[in-house]
Amino acid sequence: MSTGAEAATDGSNQNLALERCLEVLRSATNDSEQFAALLLVTECARAQELDDGTRHRIFDAVGFSFLNRLLFSRTSLDGCPDYLFRSLGLTLLACFCTDPSLASHPQVINKIPILNETLNISCQDDIKNLNSMIEDAYQCLTGILATPEGAKQLVSGGTISSLCEAHVKQNHGWTNALRILTSLLTSLPDHCWKIGCNELQCLLVKLSEDFDNIDDSHKFHLAEILPVFLPPSQLLIETSWGLNCLNHMSKALHKILSNKLSISQRDPVLLLAACLSNMYGSSWIMIDGRGEKTKFLSLLVNLACVEVRMSLEDPMPQDSRQAIVTACYTLIEMGIHECTKEGFSVLRKEQKLQLLQVMQEASAAVMYYLQQVGWERMEEPFVLASIRLLGAWLAEETSCLRQEVIQLLPFLVHYMRMWFQRAVFSRKQLKEASQMALLSSSWGAVWPGDAIRFLLPALCHLSAEEAPRKILISEGVPALLCDYYQHKWEIFSSEEGVTADRKYETQLSLQSCCGVFLNLVVTEPNLICQENCFVTLLQLLMQSLPVQLTREGQLVLVANISTLGLMMSRLLAASPVLQESYSQDFFLAVIKFLSRCHVVSAEPDEETHRIVLRDGYAEAWADISELWFLGVQAFSACLPLLPWLPSLVLSSGWLQDLLRILDEVSPGSIDLELVTALQALLTQLAQISVPCRELIQQHGGIEKANLYGMAALEQCLSKIL
Predict the structure, then answer these.
(1) Predicted model pTM
(2) By the 8 A CB rule, do 325 and 272 touch?
C-alpha cells in the first residue's frame, strides 16, 4: 500500500513526464516526431485526472490541424490497425470534451458526424481497442451535451439516428446511447421527433417490446424512461406500429401492477400509466378481452385513489410525493371520464358505481388537503393540480360532499381571483414587450394558474343551486367572471400568437362562462340589473356576435352568445346599451342565427315536404337545441320592450320565410316544442306590430294557426279582427 508521500511523488513524476511530452510535441518538426510525442501525451492523459488548465495546454500544443488529420486519415502505420490514428484522435478529443469551454468549441462541434459514425463501427479484430474508441466517442457526446447549446447541436448533427441504431442493435455502449437519448428527448422532444422520427419509432418499438418481455429490474428502469420516448403527437393511436407499442406497454403495466410492489417499483409504473392516460384517455388500455380491460382500468383508478388518500389525509403530507399524486390525479380523471361518458363504455353499471365511490373518497381527501394547507401554499403548482382534479369531479357531481364543497368555495374563489389578476398583469407586460407568443410556450393551451378554466364546468352546476350560488355572489364571482370572459375574448379574437389548441380551449371557456351567466340571469335577475359589470358584458356580447357569426365551426359559441345576450336584453332594455347602433347589428345577427335553423326538405321521393334542420345545425343540435328554443323565447320577450325590433324582423325577411315554410311543409313534420316556440313569436309580433299582423293575415294566419294547433295565435288574430 502506497504512503501519502509515495502518491505525491508519483503525481509529481507524472506531471514531469507530461511536461516533457508537451515540450517534445511543441518542438516536433515532422509528423513522425509529432505522432510519437502524441502517443506519450495520450498515455499521460489516460493515466491521470487532468485539470482544466492542463487540458487547455494539451489542446494548444496539439492544435486542431493535426487532430483533424488523425480523425479523418484513412491510412495507418505498417503493422497497425486502420483505425489507430482515429483511436488516438478520439482519446484526445474525449480529454478535451471534459472541459465545457473546449466541448463547445466549433472545431469540436464539427466532429459530431465522425463521433456518430464511430458509435456503430464494426470490426472482428482487436475488439478491446475498438470498444475503447466507442467509449471515447460517447464521452465526447456527453461532454458536448453538457454545454448550453449541446443538445441542439447533437440533434441537428444527426446523433439521434446513430444513438437509436446503437441501442436497437445492442452495440457496445448501448446503455450510454439510451442515457444520451433520454437527455435529448427531455430537452427537445418536438425537435428530436421531427429530425429522427423513423429511428425513434424503431427504438420505441424495441423499448416497448423489452418492457413487455423482460422480467428483471431493468423493467422498472424502462417504466421510468418510457414517458420521455412517447411521441408528442397522437402518433401511437393513429399507426399500426404505435398500436403495437401501446399493446406491449398496457400488457406489461397490467402484469406489473397485478403483483405486490415496493414504492420505488410502483411509482414509475403509475407515472407511465398516467402519462399514457393524459395523452390517450383510456384508449391506450389494449388488454385483450373486455373483462381484462375493465379489470385493468378499475385497478389503475383504485390504486390512484388509494395513493391520493394515503398522501393527502396524512396530517403532514410529504412534498416528495407530489409528483406521484399528480400522476394519480390524471388516472382519476380518466376514471371520471369513463364513468360519465355517454355511449359505449367497457365498464358495467356496478363497476361504475364502485369506482365513483372510491373517486368520491379521493375527492374528499383533495378537499380536506386544500382546506387544511391550501391558503398557505397558493403559490405551489401542486395546489393547482389538486384544484384541476376537484374541478373535473365537481363538473360531474356536486350533490355528494355538498357541505365540504360549500365550505371550500371561499378558498376556491380567492385562488381563482389571485391567479387571474396575476395572469392579466403578466399578459399586459408581455403585450407591451411584444412577446405574446410566450403565453403559450410551456403551458400549451392555458397560462400558468388558470384555475378558473378548470372550475368553470363546476361553476355551471354550483350557480344553479341556491346555497353555493349565494356564496359565489357574496364572494364577487359574477364580476370576476365578467372580467375573465372579456380577457378570454381578447385571446380568442386575436389573430396572432394563439395556437389552434389554445383557441379551442378558450372557446370552451367562453361557452362555459355563458352557462354560468345564464344561470344567474334566470335565478338572480335583480343582480343583473344591479351589477355594472353585466352592462359591460352585454356590450361586449353585442359587439362580438356579428363578427363571430361569419366564422365557420363556431355555432355552439354563437348560440351561447345569442341566447345570453337576448336574456340580458330583457332585463336591461332600458339601458343605454340597447339604444346604440351596434345593438341593432346584434339583433340582426341573432335573427340570422335563429332563422337559418330550419329549412324545407324537398327530397324527390317524398310526397310531402318536411321541416328539417339545416346542415351545420343538425351536427351541433345536441349542444344548441336548448339554447335555440330559449333564444326564440327570449327574442319574443324582447319584442314589446324594444319598439324598433318588429320592423327589424320585417326588414330581415325572417317573418316572410317563416310563413313560407309553414305554407310548404306538412303540419305533422313539426314537433310540439317547435310549434310552441313559433306560436309565441308569431303571437307577439301580431299583438305589437300592425305591419307584422297584416302580413300574417295575408298568409292565412287564422287558418294556419288552426292547422298547426296554435290556439293562442288564432285567438289573437280573431280578437283583432
Answers:
(1) 0.85
(2) no
